């Protein structure tokens, strides 16, 4: 494991982009409930090659393809354990400077859209119980940090942070700024919980429109590095069934995020290695 916290103190680090987007563009089917994790099981070399594209584009940090892998829902426990460990090994083999083990919200594993609402009907204690085994497995996998991402509600933030504190892990938490699960003021409350949790190296937002980033970063408490990896600037037109608008991460926006305290910047859904290359050029890489 490498010291991600120390690297962040030296300056911004570049994250990768949308793995599902890249794998699909390479001709793979990622439409099932396991999303890109299916390829981790069936064709790990293809996952490694996709990771390598992001490294070649300039990414300092790779996020593993474990986002939708969890115990007790889709797969046998021994297969889940193996996939979690392999997700880190495959990313490491791609030559990444840092590897962050993806921990998606409970709703991501259910694959029913509740990751965007936080509407689970579970208590904080129940969420702690459900997340515990996966967090333990990924914390022992050799990853440099846990990438706890797309968290849609305060209750799940509290549950995850309590588990990270008990585990003594290094982690970041990224909130889903587009979730309908946030009541007024709760984004700030969530960032305060994250900042008070030992082992946290950064906090911010992902899987949201680029224009939602700046306002969210303004809520991150001073002293805690920010992170931002939004979706591309496109919007899905459900009636026309097509993406519209300008694709990519706005480099002027990314410069603003860094000026506001972001130390990890990259992309989420529908962002590509080309987007990461542009961000790397902005950073003078």
UniProtKB/TrEMBL annotation:
PROSITE patterns: HCY (PS50970). Zn(2+) binds at residues 207, 268-269. GO terms for molecular function: methyltransferase activity. The keyword Transferase applies. Residues 1-283 form the Hcy-binding domain. Its EC number is 2.1.1.10. This is Homocysteine S-methyltransferase. The lineage of its organism: Bacteria, Bacillati, Actinomycetota, Actinomycetes, Micrococcales.
